[in-house]
Amino acid sequence: MAIIINILLLLAVISILTFVHELGHFLAAKAVKAKVIEFSIGFGPKLISRKGKETEFSLRALPFGGYVKILGDGDPTQEKENRKDKGNLKNKSKWAQMFVMLAGVTMNILLATTLYTIYLGNNGWKMIVSNTYEDFKPVGAVISKERYSDIPYELATEEGAFTAGMYEKGYIVNVNGVVIDNHLQLPKELEKFKNQSVDIYACNESEVCESFNVKVSEEGKIGVYTGSNYDVYIDYSNNKIFSGLSHSINVVKITGRALSELLSQAKETGDYSELSNTFSGPIGIYFIIDYFKTLGVITFLGILADLSLSLAVINLLPIPALDGGRFFILFIESIFKKDLNERVESLIINISFGLLILFIVIVMIKDIVNIEQLKSLFE
């Protein structure tokens, strides 16, 4: 039953993202008075179909995407006879055509922005991030920290703390009466007392506390591993109205930074497996839904926002089969004031579409091969 629910949720998520994206193209086409022949959710055989004034609205059997068929935006060999039609998109200005191409992406960004605003509003206008992003410079927000405990530690070597009889695991409260706010402050404080003894007040996991006289080494160490004791947040408290838009920008910035770090690491080690695992398809989304569905509606909306923003960014890539590539072709044509040969354009788009489908298939095969690893990420 759980699997069926997950599949239905997956299809619902894909359908929502597709509908919003294609609605953007549809509304933009109507705005520039281009004729929309069909608005379809899904591919393959029609399940439900209804004819409007000029547009056929349909629900098809394979709910993995959708499309809006606009007159003039297709195979030139099939639509040459319609070139004189005023509703042909090719008869509109380049700016109108570019507007239509980017409308789907714009709608996905608007959806992400709206959902992020709802999510942040229900989470005190803060979003927790990894401690490695302490130095991150967010747009329309600030980085804040919240301390949740004393410094967690664990004995590492048989020196200093071990010799002094400190607990095997516990929390360091202060050094010579100086309260240690975070794990980064501890080594700085110990540096002051190389080859000297210090009084460390610590507590064990049962909250039994006492003071220990600990010898500090020549390197300023006492032989313990320490962990973080605070959370890092992107705080939008002073920018609530535009928080969703700001967070969309910050998510793209953080993702770009993370991918850049993984790429650098892969180049150094020659191991690209971790980088490849950042790309996933419907199978990966299935496990994301399975994990987050139990965390409540608001969290689920946050995940939907992430997916909508990801769809927007991917569609902006300058690949001819995607909106970004189509926009790029139109932009170049507007600069040189000359249209690319329609057959050549159609060939480029079809080849890139085939390569894109091949890439998706490869990603899905990778997900199937690494399915146990995918599962472990969400356990």
TrEMBL record:
Cofactors demanded by this protein: Zn(2+)
Lineage, top ranks: Bacteria, Candidatus Dojkabacteria
UniProt feature coiled coil, ranges: none
UniProt name for this protein: Peptidase M50 domain-containing protein
Chief location of this protein within or outside the cell: membrane
TM region(s), chain numbering: 95-119, 295-317, 347-365
Every Peptidase M50 domain range: 11-358
Listed Pfam families: Peptidase_M50 (PF02163)
Membrane topology: Multi-pass membrane protein
Cellular localisation: Membrane
GO annotation, cellular component aspect: membrane
Keyword tags: Hydrolase, Membrane, Metalloprotease, Protease, Transmembrane, Transmembrane helix, Zinc
An individual GO BP term: proteolysis
CDD domains: S2P-M50_PDZ_RseP-like (cd06163)
Gene Ontology molecular-function annotations: metalloendopeptidase activity
Family: Belongs to the peptidase M50B family.
